[in-house]
Amino acid sequence: xxxxxxxxxxxxxxxxxxxxxxxxxxxxxxxxxxxxxxxxxxxxxxxxxxxxxxxxxxxxxxxxxxxxxxxxxxxxxxxxxxxxxxxxxxxxxxxxxxxxxxxxxxxxxxxxxxxxxxxxxxxxxxxxxxxxxxxxxxxxxxxxxxxxxxxxxxxxxxxxxxxxxxxxxxxxxxxxxxxxxxxxxxxxxxxxxxxxxxxxxxxxxxxxxxxxxxxxxxxxxxxxxxxxxxxxxxxxxxxxxxxxxxxxxxxxxxxxxxxxxx
Length: 262
Ligand SMILES: C[S@@+](CC[C@H](N)C(=O)[O-])C[C@H]1O[C@@H](n2cnc3c(N)ncnc32)[C@H](O)[C@@H]1O
Known about the structure:
- By secondary structure, the chain is of the alpha/beta class.
- The chain has helices at 7-10, 14-21, 38-46, 60-69, 107-117, 137-155, 166-176, 198-201, 207-223, 230-247; strands at residues 28-32, 52-57, 76-79, 92-98, 118-129, 179-186, 254-260.
- It has one domain (7-260): Rossmann fold, CATH 3.40.50.150.
- The protein has ten helices and seven strands.
- Residues 33-35, 38-39, 56-59, 62, 81-83, 98-100, 103-104, 159 line the site of S-adenosylmethionine (SAM).
């Protein structure tokens, strides 16, 4: 953890989540929708201990970046659809899913597959953004940027949906029948505790932060530059850029749901 945390991060709730993760012996861990493996890196720093990490993702392109990021760190990355995991029942000691639920076409199918491959007594960890509750003006801008990305992905036929409310996320977990469920909310993600740029992020109007969000919007736009709806999306993106310049941008708040099988 970085030695000197900005007050906003210290008070955010992230430290409490870190403490909870620090009580968990991860054993063999499965990360679903791992993308570039960022959550694996967070868990490597926060779990009490672990044996191995396996990350699965439906996108081989994303996994290539994960393998590159982990070339000197042991972790296994496999292309797989989370709706039909190829692992045996009760295979992993811990299963986790981070920022991926709102990318899924069939959330219940994925969560029940994760439950199936989890050993009795093993931990189920969810990290996800949510749509309701208080948000700062800069977080509202982040939400609009996310809306734009959802629109772009949807035009390209890539599953990506609006985030769920906290209650809907809790309902998903209730349907799984996990025990000892603990819910944490934090206005900053746990990964921020380890990030050297935390002080920059504490100021949503810092120029690096604004430049990076403007770049993110341009990247989203460039993906649909040949699409018939391009002009419509471009107009929306230009308005959004003005909002970013006026309000800055801060990452959305996060909910953590952590429970056990059986
Ligand atoms: C926002 S990214 C996840 C970010 C990452 N877990 C983290 O915490 O940084 C969502 C990922 O879910 C993957 N995904 C979407 N549907 C999937 C499915 N059915 N099975 C496996 N991966 C899926 C996407 O390819 C994408 O890499």
